[in-house]
Amino acid sequence: MKFNQSRFQSIVYRLRKATVSVSIFSLILVVSFLLGSEPDESFIVIYLAGVFGFPIVYILWLMLFNSWKNKVDEYSIEFTEDGIRYINMGVIDFLPWSEFKEYKISGKFDRVLKIDGENTEIKFDLGVFNSLQQKGIISNLSATC
Question: Which pTM does this prediction carry?
Answer without folding.
Answer: 0.72
